[in-house]
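explain this:
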Amino acid sequence: MAADKNPVTVSNENNGSGSENSKGGKVFDEASYEKERLAKDAQAMDAMKVVAEKELSKVDTGSVGELRSPWKWVLRKRIWDFMEENDIARFPRPVHHRIPNFVGADQAARRLSELPEFRSASTIKVNPDTPQRPVRHFVLEQKKVLLTPQPRLRTGFFSTIEMKELPSLVEIKECTNSKGVVKYGTPVTLNEEYTVDLVVVGSTAVCPRTGARVGKGEGFAELEWGILSAQGNLEAKTCLVVTTVHDCQVIEDENDMPEGWALTKHDVPVDIIVTPTRVIHVFDRAPKPSGILWDLLSPQKLAAIRVLRQLKQETEDKLGVTLPSGPDELLPPVASRNNKNRKKKNNRRRKPRQQQRKGSETPPAKK
């Protein structure tokens, strides 16, 4: 099909259309899916507000002994407030407790799409948040494989979309939101073989000197990185990480960072920062982690995410040990969706891993 030349501008309109899935099979109930998605997202937002208020109250009273990164909550609130007060934020609003959408997200995505690092990549993982929807558009427009996680990993693991695998009448803009991923995506299982060439993440704030990044506080970007690196689907030392943000989210002066700021060992720094006006290459980047840091993973998060339980069980069986777990935490509720209307599709380019490679804590060598 002819590629759509302009990236989608995100609005609150329903961009989905049609009632058949990509293979012309059972009807996909978009209205029911969207109703459930919005309800679950609202629950998650409410829970994140509770977490944020609790953490910020500890910072205000000086009681921060239990917090790993109190400075992140201070910085998040500062950026969210600034973007709303100066009308930099865009739908969905308010941007508090989200990866904030911003004025110029389309321009930042286009600037990213012109970079040689983007153009040379074949498979690109992009987060499912709204400000990166134009990035997902450019991935598909350039005939690359889009790898995107289910929001909060709540309905499964990852899905891939490749326009050449879809009917010619399907437009790119139909495939770049969560409905499109469910309707047209191919589910990816934990032990499939594929290689991620570039990772695009959303951010609330980012430091151009070290690449230190702050998300919205749920830690899913780090979990996804950990799983992919543990399973050998990306090479932690060489795979580039890029973020698209507004210029106000770039913390130029370290004196503007909250007191006591420091990365934790699970944080994934970025290599390239792209804004609507510029591209910043991070030359003194902090080291990236590799694999799952089980001692930081709470029992609650493990219980909520099936793919993590599967990976932990496989790893324990392989190593013959009981892996540690991290401290308790309050989690947003996760959706339990049974997408009966979606047919499983086979991707001939990928094949299951060999049994002996399952559950490896370190990236196995590619054959």
